[in-house]
From TrEMBL:
The keyword Iron does not apply. Keywords: Membrane, Transmembrane, Transmembrane helix. It comes from the Bacteria. The chain crosses the membrane at residues 43-64, 71-94, 114-134, 146-164, 184-204, 216-233, 253-271, 283-301, 307-329, 349-370. Residues 464-594 form the VIT domain. This is MSEP-CTERM sorting domain-containing protein. Coiled coil: none annotated. The lineage of its organism: Bacteria, Pseudomonadati, Bacteroidota, Cytophagia, Cytophagales.
Length: 943
């Protein structure tokens, strides 16, 4: 500890943490400063200035002492300790000004006071250690008992004081009384920690005869008894103080915590070997477990101010001090080992041995998390951005374990006590495995159903905050529009204005929700919402981020004004406006870019966009590279009419538990093939967690018998894989999908396959083959799990249009009057750098083509998602990956920008937290963890 008297530690333990603190707080201040009242801004400025002044004084003092060749003394320890205690006290006294209620919690993921308290801990700890080392010379006898007595006299004195009538001690105002008692408490706390730490330090210095047995008992108490007792109390083994799967200070229920505590105690209490090689092994082992000691030291740092109160009220509060005492014991053992081994090994070898040992636990945890990341992301890629040409084989058992960890780590609470997370490790897991995001309950359930064959969600599934249903009193009052024909881009630019009103004068905080059905070739180019007397233009943002911010604002219950416009389907957008209070009329509007005039219907009201009297047949319009084309209804009628030949494509259920049905499934298929024969040869796919298409002409019955029955019935993957193959390879034949299963409700299906409608121009029907041989029709466009009331003919001849001609068809289009956006499956549309020369409408055509390309090639989604989103930003044309969001103030916009960058840096399949009442993980939490671990390492080096 005496090495901490060197002035260099001021830079490492004061200057650098203060700079980190100022950087983190400045980042938060830049987001919320527009919401802060002048008094709060003044508090922020004065505290910031005070920290700068104190850090500058400490740095200059350290440099001066180093220049003089002198060590730090009592003056620095006392001065720094008192000065920073005053700063902490002032900060907590003005907590309501630092983060007033006007600032929503979701804008401040990590409270500034937590930053302040955590990052000033190295300075406070260093100052106290300097003071202890300076007043405790090693060459003079010291009394351990006296220091212990003085330490525990503090809670006794406080117990006496709280028994006295408050009126006899009060003086002045309530505010004065509270601050006086706060100062007295902090003074008592510092005295308690000072004498307790000094006693532990003196024990470490003892060399008197006969102290060995007492020293061993002390080490057993501190390294074994107190940690195991603390774990038992925290985890409820000695009385349930929290809910199941929660701990008072964190979730430490894993057997590893108990095992490491016992192993750590064994290594610390073993007699020191006289053989250098064995002593070196002991040193490495103790170094390896030093990470365990550092972890709990960091975890309990924020709780040390509560130690005195806990001792008085609970009686077991001294367990909160165990990590501090264990740190002192562990540091002393490592220092003793190091000094003894210096006679045999160089300092470089010993330093390397310590670092190698210390890195064992962090590297093991990191390696485990990286493996879980690889397993999880591989599964996410398979489900949400698969490469249909690749063969996947995932470790279902490892994925199941990873999902269990995700469930545990995503359970976040705002409570200071009682949490099911593992402190700091949960943050590290979320940062390394989940990119600071999470997996929604729905996606976790889907992954478990796909790979584990689980039919029902776990009872653990939490229902996140659900926004209130739109009130029936909020209705569209008036729908109006203005349209202008842009001759340069040969397209219409229309503004649709919606006036919505709440007919209930006593109702507040209601939300208006509606859907706008758009024709093909119509893009959203802008959005606005009237807020008060001003018109707020929408911000085009990443879709998940915009939806999350909208939900956060609505959940504030402060009646802030957001408006959200996002895609609800391939040709439909959802509009939300909040709030629409009683007697209030809100106006919002959407800009649409469209090639042809059309009639828009919203909530039963109609408006004509464009001039239908001037409408004329529109020729097909293609992008410069002819990757994608817009074909109007009139132009489609001029295309050749062809009739393709159908063939059966059977999707056979080989999921877990279906082995006994294989013979029955074969008989059903053979019956269908005998009764009704399609023109083409049938095809087959085996479907469980994976979809395995069988080669043409293969013995499907033999393959069915040999297929392992495992996992869930992932019918979504099988249908998509089949439709994508049909769309990527236009042919004069097309598949008629027939699902062979006896448990369709257990099949994993989406809400629709509307994004792949270009792959089934003849009909959106697929069929389920029942045990009695009947074929029930289902729709690919809407609710595929529900059978249709009218059963369309199985092999009805249906004519379609060939694009661009029948001989070299790139696509087949349904024979209807509707326009189509047609993608050339052999050419990927280039992302526009800005708006193309032909105008914004054609830029939108390129973006729609890129969207269709990603639908057919989901394996490129992860790589091209961010460039696609940024292309949408540049052109201000909304896509399914983006959304328009109108916000009330600059703080909301700054928070949106920060969260958006976080989402864009993460895996596309990850989610923002669906439980919007919780505080999201903040990127600064990792810095807090590193700061605490760094403190432990520095203390070790300074011992």
């Amino acid at each position: 500890m005496r090495k901490l008297l060197h002035p260099k530690w001021i830079i490492l333990l004061n200057t650098l943490p203060t700079l980190a603190l100022l950087a983190l707080c400045l980042a938060q201040f830049n987001i919320i400063h527009t919401l802060l009242p002048p008094a709060s801004v003044l508090v922020w400025q004065r505290l910031g200035l005070g920290l700068v002044v104190l850090a500058a004084l400490a740095l200059n003092y350290g440099l001066w002492q180093r220049r003089r060749g002198e060590l730090l003394g009592v003056g620095y320890g006392m001065g720094a300790l008192l000065a920073y205690v005053v700063v902490v006290f002032i900060a907590f006294s003005y907590a309501d000004d630092i983060q007033p209620r006007v600032v929503p919690d979701w804008m401040v993921p990590t409270p500034p006071l937590l930053y302040l308290f955590t990052l000033l801990m190295p300075t406070l700890a260093h100052a106290m250690f300097v003071l202890i080392a300076a007043v405790t010379p090693e060459d003079q006898p010291q009394s351990t008992g006296l220091n212990f007595s003085l330490a525990f006299a503090v809670p006794v004195l406080w117990f006496v004081l709280i028994q006295l009538p408050t009126s006899s001690l009060a003086a002045g105002s309530e505010s004065f009384w509270g601050r006086l008692w706060g100062l007295l408490y902090m003074g008592g706390l510092l005295s308690f920690l000072f004498f307790l730490t000094r006693a532990a330090y003196i024990i470490g210095m003892r060399r008197e005869a006969g102290w060995g047995e007492l020293g061993l008992l002390w080490k057993i108490l501190v390294s074994l008894v107190l940690p195991l007792l603390g774990l038992a109390v925290n985890n409820g083994h000695l009385g349930r103080l929290t809910h199941d799967e929660q701990g008072i200070f964190g979730n430490f229920t894993s057997p590893w915590f108990y095992a490491l505590a016992a192993l750590n105690a064994l290594l610390l209490c073993l007699p020191n070997s006289a053989r250098p090689s064995w002593r070196l092994a002991q040193f490495v082992g103790r170094s390896a477990l030093f990470g365990y000691t550092c972890y709990f030291f960091v975890v309990f740092l924020p709780f040390l101010p509560l130690a005195v109160v806990a001792i008085i009220l609970i009686g077991l509060g001294f367990l909160m001090l165990a990590p501090l005492l264990l740190m002192m014991v562990h540091l002393r053992e490592l220092t003793t080992d190091y000094d003894a081994l210096r006679a045999y090994y160089s300092a470089r070898v010993l330093t390397g041995a310590f670092l190698a040992g210390w890195a064992v636990l962090p590297l093991y945890v990191t390696a485990a998390y990286l493996h879980e990341r690889a397993t999880l992301h591989r599964a996410l890629d398979y489900v949400y951005s698969p490469d249909y040409a690749e063969t996947y084989h995932l470790d279902a058992e490892a994925l199941g374990q990873t999902l269990q960890v995700v469930k545990q780590h995503k359970e976040r609470r705002n409570d200071f006590f009682a949490t099911s997370q593992v402190p700091y490790l949960s943050t590290y897991f979320n940062w390394l495995v989940l990119d600071n995001l999470t997996l929604s309950d729905a996606k976790i359930t889907t992954l478990e159903r796909v790979f584990l064959g689980r039919m029902q969600p776990d009872p653990w599934v939490r229902r996140g905050w659900t926004p209130p249903l739109p009130s029936t009193a909020v209705q569209l009052q008036r729908l109006s529009s203005t349209s202008t024909f842009d001759a340069r881009q040969q397209a219409w630019v229309s503004w649709v204005n919606l006036d919505v009103a709440n007919r209930n004068p006593s109702q507040r905080g209601t939300e208006y929700v509606t859907t706008l059905a758009l024709p093909p070739g119509c893009w959203v180019g802008d959005y606005y919402l009237n807020i008060g007397r001003r018109r707020e233009q929408g911000i085009l943002a990443e879709q998940k981020t915009a939806a999350w911010v909208f939900a956060q604002i609505v959940n504030e219950n402060s009646y802030r004004d957001p408006g959200l416009l996002t895609y609800a389907g391939p040709n439909a957008v959802s509009l939300k406006v909040y709030p629409v209070n009683g007697g209030e009329v809100r106006r919002t509007g959407v800009q649409l870019l469209h090639k042809e005039p059309f009639v828009l219907t919203v909530d039963g009201q109609r408006t004509v966009l464009g001039d239908t009297t001037q409408a004329r047949p529109t020729a097909p319009v293609a992008t410069p590279g002819r990757e994608v084309a817009y074909v109007s209804g009139a132009a489609k009628k001029s295309l050749p009419l062809v009739q393709r030949k159908p063939y059966y494509h059977f999707l056979l259920d080989v999921s877990a538990g279906k082995a006994a049905q294989k013979a029955d499934f074969k008989q059903r298929v053979l019956t269908v093939l005998q009764q009704t024969s399609a023109v083409g040869s049938p095809r087959f796919s085996l479907v469980n967690s994976y979809a395995t298409p069988l080669p043409a002409g293969a013995d499907w019955q033999q393959q069915l018998d040999a297929a392992p029955n495992q996992g869930g019935f992932y019918l979504d993957r099988a249908i998509r894989q089949t439709l994508v193959a049909a769309r990527q390879n236009p042919a004069p034949t097309y598949p008629v999908l027939v699902v062979v299963t006896d448990t369709l409700p257990q099949a994993i299906l989406p809400t629709d396959f509307a994004d792949l409608s270009s792959a089934y121009p003849e009909s959106d029907a697929f069929y389920v083959l029942a045990a009695d041989g009947s074929l029930a029709a289902h729709s690919l466009r809407h609710e595929p799990g529900i059978s249709l009331s009218d059963n369309p003919p199985l092999l009805a001849p249906t004519a379609v249009r060939a694009w661009p001609n029948a001989r070299q068809a790139q696509a087949y289009l349904p024979d209807t009057d509707a326009a189509e956006v047609v993608l050339n499956p052999g050419r990927q549309p280039a992302l526009p750098v800005g708006n193309v020369a032909a105008g914004r409408w054609q830029t939108g055509l390129l973006l729609r083509g890129q969207e269709q390309w990603q639908t057919l090639h989901p394996e490129v989604t992860e790589a091209e998602r961010v460039p696609f989103i940024r292309a949408s930003f540049r052109s201000r044309i909304m896509t399914p990956f983006t959304a328009y969001l109108a916000l009330e103030n600059d703080a909301q916009k700054a928070a949106l920008s920060r969260k958006q960058e976080q989402v864009l840096d993460a895996n596309a399949a990850l989610d923002l937290d669906e439980k919007t009442t919780e505080v999201p993980i903040d990127e600064g939490a990792l810095l807090l963890l590193l700061a605490g671990v760094g403190l432990g390492l520095l203390l070790k080096r300074g011992s």
